[in-house]
Amino acid sequence: MDLLQKVTALAKRRGIIFPNSEIYGGIGGFYDYGPVGVEMKNNLKRYWWKNMVDKRENVVGIDGTIITHPKVWEASGHVENFGDEVVECKKCHRRFREDEIDGKCPNCGSTEFTDPRSYNILFKTEIGVIEGEKQEAYLRGEACQTIYLDFKNVVDSTRQTIPFGIAQIGKAFRNEVTPGKFTYRLREFEQWDMQFFVHPDDMQEYFDYWMNERMEFYKGLYRKHENLRFYQHPKEKLIFYAKDAYDIEYKAPWGWAENEGIHWRGDYDLTQHMKFSRTDLTYTDPKTGEKFLPNIVETSGGVDRTFLMLLFDAYEEEELENGNTRTVLKIHKDIAAYRVAIFPLVSNKEEIVNKAREVFDSLSDDLKVVWDARGNIGKRYRYQDEIGTPYCITVDYDTLNDNTVTVRDRDSMEQTRVKIDDLKEFLK
Ligand code: ATP
Q1: pLDDT per position as a tens digit, 72-130
Q2: Mind listing the domains of the chain with CATH numbers?
Q3: How many angstroms does the Cα of residue 177 sit away from the middle of ligand 1?
Q4: Model pTM score
Q5: Nearest CA to ligand 1 atom 23
Q6: By C-alpha distance, which of 408, 380, 336 is closest to 16?
Q7: Is the peptide bond before 106 cis (omega within 30 degrees of 0)?
Q8: How far does CA 117 lie from the centroid of its chain?
Q9: To which H or E segment does residue 13 belong?
Q10: 193: Cβ below 6 Å to ligand 1?
């Protein structure tokens, strides 16, 4: 089994990620997060928000809708041109994005393909209930458009002045031709986006600044920094308004894979929306009185992709001294579903169970705590290792005498005796 298969199996087995509609045979490009996965994903989004919004005085957040005025997608260019060049294998008739085939069909090895055709990957829907009067609309193909739509409202309603950023985490939908590689290419997914509005003269400075900031962010999240790199888009492939573009890539089991894009969007988006909405989106500098159309540096990453890369980054199989192996997710402690698991050594001794409950209650206000009283301690460690719980606390007979518990560390497997009163400090 390769790492992708191992991670997919673990995710299913431990309630991290499930195939959507599985009882109906599943549906390509859609996945659900299970009881453990939803905790991790929420932690991951909080981690990004803390880094991008809470810690910065010049970035504010919004939460925009999935369906917008349909003209938005005309203005953005998505209605006319949002998709991939798709070819069909002449032998097995499977379809692929042209940029995915390396001479041969990935399915049957044939080298004969149809000419490429363009497909639009926007999802359509309808607003209204009366046939004939329904308005065609789209599920957003990228989350950032709502940021441009709210730009003027944010300027008018907050104390922000340029340069400043607007951040958002939200769903995007793309009718991908070849969804796959687990949650790497989905049809419904979440993006974390930040659009930084600057004076045109300051573009290069902030482009460089955000490249560095975003790489540092991923370095803080992943353990294996050798698996991170920048990929610079070739100049000849840049979209006409972009002076530069980089992807932050992580080395997935199948090769380098895009995690986030840092894009030079210039004034393209605001220009388009000014044109289509006939609303003035220029900005007046409150100090100098200068009127200009802000330029934009975009940082746009995938929550689901980062989540998947984190699983690759964290997954380890370790030989133990007794000859057994353990599977452990050495995931960032702030992303783990639970900070600590509480075990009563035995579940049929009331004093021990009550004491363990006390410990649980004393910690659960400040930390995400999980209770585990099934099976023996060895099995509980195995389970908690597989979901990446950084600490396990066992309440035993000694606890009843000296008010100490055993704290076991996920990564080193070291066990330390800690006073219950000191636990909070120890775990933080
Ligand atoms: P790709 O080239 O892989 O299709 P993209 O360059 O079209 O991606 P962007 O439009 O720049 O992607 O979107 C920003 C981020 O959103 C990507 O870096 C990725 O993390 C995430 N993303 C894009 N498409 C998908 C998808 N189909 N499934 C999951 N995440 C996605």
Answers
A1: 999 998 888 877 788 888 888 888 888 778 889 888 889 999 888 877 889 999 999 88
A2: 3-70+141-312 (3.30.930.10), 338-427 (3.40.50.800)
A3: 13
A4: 0.93
A5: 302
A6: 336
A7: no
A8: 31
A9: helix 3-13
A10: no
